[in-house]
Amino acid sequence: MRDWRCVVTGATSGIGREIAHGLAAAGAALALVCRDRGRGEAVAAELAGSWPDPEIRLFVADLAVLDDVRSVAREIRRHWDRVDVLVNNAGTHDVHPSVSPDGFDRMIATNHLGPFLLTHLLLDPLREGAPSRVVTVASEAHRSVLRLDPYSFADPRPYGPLGSWHVYARSKLLNVLTTQEAARRWARYGVTAHALCPGLVSTGLVRNIPLVPGLLALAEHTPLVRSPAQGARPALRLAGDPEFARRGGGFHSWMPVARLLPPAPLRLRPALRRAVWERSAELVGLRDTDASPAHRRPGRPPDRGPDRTEVTAHE
Hints:
By secondary structure, the protein is of the alpha/beta class. It has one domain: Rossmann fold (3-Layer(aba) Sandwich), CATH 3.40.50. Helices cover 41% and strands 11% of the residues. The protein contains 10 helices and 7 strands. It has a 7-stranded parallel beta sheet, sandwiched between helices. Helix 6 links the parallel strand 5 and strand 6 (191-197).
């Protein structure tokens, strides 16, 4: 991976920080996207002190704020005309609801809409870097979603700590479905897309999930719970292993038992994948989602009002 150009979101702690270390160790140039400049600068200094002559660029953005996403994408494209790997790692589990500046549920905006928009806005440099890869950290939690309305998934609603699990799981299902659709649409550009579950990893995100801290404390010293460094290995493999250079669209799970299970039923509905993709594009203001930004048709972004007559979520 020497001289590859890699973008990593959420690189200031946990799995993201370890992914950044792994990529830097392999000789890649890094663009780190984070919310907190101070923490980002600390990680950048840590990487610079650990690996010889790394190229490290820091970009500050809150992925829940779509204007931040647009701004950081412009900055990355200004510095690099080529991206070899984009790792969508940033995520949150909010135990209480809040609304993003754009009017969406903030957890859905952070975990899905922001990464979805960033990936599209970096499609041109990803095409320049082909064969290139998009690696998204999802979760086995997506299996718990039995129904998904592709028109209202981002609408703010009240929920408590236990209900937050369902919203988190929905955001991870959205990650998986759009990964599958990206792989289908962008294979002709030489861009592959992968989603993964790193297993149960001891990070701040996991500790926010209701009921998990107590269980995690019991399991932390067993093989069931991985360290952040161990949790980063699947993403690093998907990012750099030649085996995954041309074959995309999969959900790769590192949960020992879950790997034996069949795919979640909602993953097997192409019409649902398309509906989620197109609705996500509407919500973030994209028009032609098969085209890269430089080749997209000009026009006013569609309004956010639902139109349930055009696409059905069922086969």
